[in-house]
Specification:
128 residues; S-adenosylmethionine decarboxylase; six-stranded antiparallel β-sheet
């Protein structure tokens, strides 16, 4: 079966506290990850919250990368949602090292199977 999208969920526990605070530093790390996976960057948006925490997205031609940090817990949640052939492994290994995570967890899901669909439809738009 061929899927439309890969969804990579990266939970980075026990991170370097300082790396979770600065949106400019995090933006550069996420851009490096995009480059490592072979993505074409089309836009970026990052925001630092008060008193702390960063959220940001890197929009790529193949979909997007997103990051949210919780410095008070030394935790970062990162997602890659991509189509096409991307080298996720290089990118998530880089980010685990970049944030200094002592306990990374990576989950990969396939979404949008094109060949078959089995399951229950919970919502379907009505015609008209």
């Amino acid at each position: 079966m061929r899927s439309l999208l890969d969804l990579v969920l990266i939970d980075l526990y026990e991170c370097n506290h300082e790396k979770l605070l600065d949106s400019e530093v995090i933006k550069e790390g996420m851009l490096t990850a995009a480059k490592l996976m072979g993505a074409e960057v089309v836009a970026v948006s990052f925001h630092t919250f008060k008193p702390w925490g960063v959220s940001g997205t890197v929009t790529i031609a193949e979909s997007h990368l997103a990051v949210h940090t919780w410095p008070e817990y030394n935790f970062a949640a990162i997602t890659f949602e991509t189509c096409g052939q991307m080298d996720h492994k290089k990118a998530y290994r880089f980010l685990a090292e970049f944030f200094g995570s002592k306990s990374p967890k990576v989950t990969i899901q396939k979404r949008g199977f094109m060949d078959t669909y089995e399951g229950e439809i919970y919502y379907k738009q009505e015609a008209g």
